[in-house]
Amino acid sequence: MVEVPDALSTLFSAQIETDGDRYIVEIPKSEVSHGAVSPGETYRVGLLSQVDASASATAQPQTPKQDTDPERANTGVPQPPVDEGEIRNVTIESLGDQGDGIAKVERGYVVIVPDGEPGDSPTVEIETVQENVAFASVVDNDGHTV
């Protein structure tokens, strides 16, 4: 099993591209816009090989979401790790520019929680899911229904 350090900034899937005598791994724009990485900074990069379908049930804690959008099906683009209507326990890590709580779930995917404070661990319902961010409402905050 691979040990993941607490200093992990982001996790995403990407293909390795060839450019002459070098190879390129592109960082998704969303990782920069969410502050996971910054242009001009130096990072340590680790690569994990792609897990085949038969091993994924035991190697990964959650099964990837199936794409139901025919325009994006089979494009290789990772899908959001949450679904609308899903109930989740999250931990607010920081505040966004507009004062909302920001929680991160699998692969660094961002969930925006109104009125969340860093350190809060509410139970939320995912209301809107977009490619790079989801919006949720608090359904239980430390045992008190909101």
TrEMBL record:
SUPFAM superfamilies hit by this protein: Nucleic acid-binding proteins
Pfam families, per database record: TRAM
Region (Disordered): 53-85
Record PROSITE patterns: TRAM (PS50926)
TRAM domain boundaries: 81-140
Biased composition (Polar residues): 53-65
Coiled-coil regions, chain positions: none
Name the record gives this protein: TRAM domain-containing protein
Native source organism of the sequence: Haloarcula marismortui ATCC 33799
